[in-house]
Write a structure and sequence with these properties.
Shape: globular
Number of strands: 13
CATH topology of the domain at 114-252 and 306-361: Rossmann fold
Strand content: 5-15%
Structural class: alpha/beta
Oligomer: single chain
CATH class of the domain at 114-252 and 306-361: Alpha Beta
Helix content: 40-55%
CATH architecture of the domain at 114-252 and 306-361: 3-Layer(aba) Sandwich
């Protein structure tokens, strides 16, 4: 249900009836019960432009508002706020209408967009580490959210598979005479040895650079060895993605090498647009607001990451026909993306109407506030972190009502869910402290708290043991009203999260939903013999709808539910 849209329309008609105009009409959820369910605070802006008393105008609008359907009552508060209470009868009709609905009342969008989401971007020839976690799970959540709302989503996993490091690897492989059929674990160590040679031996480094040129020129031997490195790395990524439950496959990979043939064309386009300036033999772009230029071609004719990114924007805008392009990348790349988007729009590589967004995120920190590392300062492999999450989840639930056969499955759902939810529940641009104790707690805003509520509802339904015959929910007390209204706010929540690309909007909603349900469950008996049949079935329906809402919303976050904890 798009409650805000309905209220905005009613407010707009009220303003029109009062001969007033509001440029942008937007109600917000009230912060306290005494302020109603929703609040409109746009009167102050209108009053200021008309030089009239805002409270006087608010009273005129309140008298003009249609209160025959969704609105029960409105009142003026403070300097001119309009507080709005939703009708109980509307809540009853609306909540009853979504009983049995797989989408829990959420419609698909009317305006379908083609959205490209660039996320994960692991390094090739290395194992994925914790630094890849945030991009991967934030990107996956956005993909799931956009798809659930009905958008056409194109996943793009932009991997670095080109450049000096691969010349280095090939040169070292040729030097020691191996055939390249290494396991990834060997490849990780192989990379370290090759890097050491590159850093310490200038002749080896020159030879590595020569191999880069051979690779770019399509040398058959170099390409064969290069492909083995890439395939080995991608196999490891597949294992991590499967464990994380992430919707990325090899068909979503768009590597740097994919754009290699397009780079000259991008530079030519920029030259023809008059944007390029030559500086010390290099071709550069000077962008307002930035001291340093963006270099797109070096003096020796070589291209840079910026050139590849510009080619990527052009490909996504013109060939994939994207309406919105989201780059889920570390916040520290903010200036790069500001420059990239500015050049793409000003040069015509992307049309003005295309949304280009840097979905920035902060850093995972340890308890001391430093970037998350191993005890000896090394990088933590992502697969090891996920395995540890599952083992810690087993310890957390080992004494609960879970069969030995289900323990592994449930522990994985809880462990992986805990890691994901802890990340997604904070503002994505913020750094956050990684804490096993906090994320695997049954209390507070955690995945386990949400999963436990779902399992508790399943236990209630199992205990009832038969179908719920009624399809009508009755609102009898304030907690039932609050729970029903919270469920009905799901569509507005998802639309807001989609617009702002903020997964924590969804987790905040889930926490509020479950907290409200727990209060409802504690104070409203469901299965007691003293409860009349019609009230029992109404409360069972409300509980079942809550469970469906939890399941649907957790699925958007890429987190599984469990029937028993």
């Amino acid at each position: 249900m798009q409650i805000k849209s309905k209220l905005n329309s009613i407010i707009a008609k009220g303003l029109e009836s009062a001969n007033l105009n509001g440029d942008t009409i937007s109600v917000v959820e009230a912060t306290r019960p005494q302020f109603g369910d929703y609040q409109f605070n746009g009167i102050m802006k209108i009053a200021k432009s008309l030089r009239r008393n805002p409270r006087e105008l608010a009273n005129i609008v309140v008298d003009s508002i249609d209160k025959s359907d969704i609105i029960d009552r409105v009142e003026v508060a403070g300097a001119g706020f309009i507080n709005i209470w939703i009708s109980n009868s509307w809540i009853e009709r609306s909540i009853s209408s979504i009983v049995g609905d797989d989408r829990v009342g959420v419609s698909k969008v009317d305006e379908v967009k083609r959205i490209v989401v660039d996320y994960s971007s692991p390094n090739m020839a290395k194992q994925m580490h914790v630094g890849h976690l945030r991009s991967t799970i934030i990107g996956d959540t956005l993909v799931r959210l956009f798809e659930f709302l009905g958008h056409r989503v194109i996943r793009q996993n932009h991997i670095g598979d080109w450049g000096t490091q691969f010349g280095m690897l090939i040169a070292y492989l040729e030097e020691i005479g191996e055939d390249g059929d290494s396991t990834l674990q060997d490849l990780e160590e192989f990379y370290k040895r090759a890097k050491k040679r590159f850093d310490e031996d200038e002749k080896f480094a020159d030879r590595a650079r020569e191999y880069v040129v051979k690779l770019q020129q399509g040398d058959e031997r170099c390409l064969t060895l290069w492909k083995r490195f890439i395939d080995s790395s991608l196999k490891h990524c597949e294992i991590v993605y499967e464990k994380l439950g992430v919707k990325l496959t090899n068909s979503d990979v768009r590597a740097e090498s994919f754009y290699n043939s397009r780079l000259k064309g991008v530079v030519k386009h920029l030259e023809e647009s008059g944007a390029l300036v030559e500086s010390s033999g290099a071709k550069c772009l000077f962008i307002d607001g930035f001291d340093n230029p963006m270099i797109v071609q070096k003096s020796d004719g070589g291209f840079l990451y910026a050139t590849t990114d510009l080619a990527g924007v052009e490909f996504r805008a013109k060939e994939l026909k994207a309406d919105r392009i989201c780059y889920v990348v570390d916040a520290r790349q903010g200036d790069h993306f500001k420059q990239l988007f500015s050049v793409a729009k000003s040069s015509g590589l992307a049309e003005e109407g295309i949304e280009l967004e840097h979905i920035a995120f902060g850093t995972m920190m340890d308890r001391s506030g430093r970037p998350f590392k191993t005890r000896d300062g090394g990088t933590i492999k992502l697969i090891e972190l996920l395995d540890e999450a599952i083992e810690k989840a087993k310890s957390t639930i080992k004494n609960r009502d879970i069969s030995s056969g289900d323990l592994e499955r449930v522990a994985k759902a809880i462990g992986i869910g805990a890691v994901k939810y802890a990340d997604l529940s904070v503002n994505r641009e913020s750094n956050y402290i990684f804490s096993w104790d906090k994320m695997l707690s049954f209390e507070g805003n955690t995945a386990l708290y949400i999963q436990y509520a779902y399992a508790r509802i399943q236990s209630i339904l199992r205990k009832y043991g038969r179908d719920i015959e009624s399809k009508e929910i009755k609102i009898i007390d304030p907690l039932e009203r609050s729970l029903a209204l919270t469920i009905l706010k799901l569509e507005d929540t998802l639309l807001k999260a989609s617009e702002d690309a903020t997964p924590n909007t969804i987790t905040s909603y889930l926490y509020a939903l479950v907290t409200t349900f727990m209060k409802f469950y504690e104070q409203n008996p469901i299965l007691k013999d003293s409860v009349p049949d019609d009230i029992r079935e109404s409360r069972l329906l409300l509980a079942e709808l809550t469970a469906n809402t939890i399941s649907t919303t957790l699925d958007i976050l890429g987190i599984e539910v469990v029937d028993r904890i």
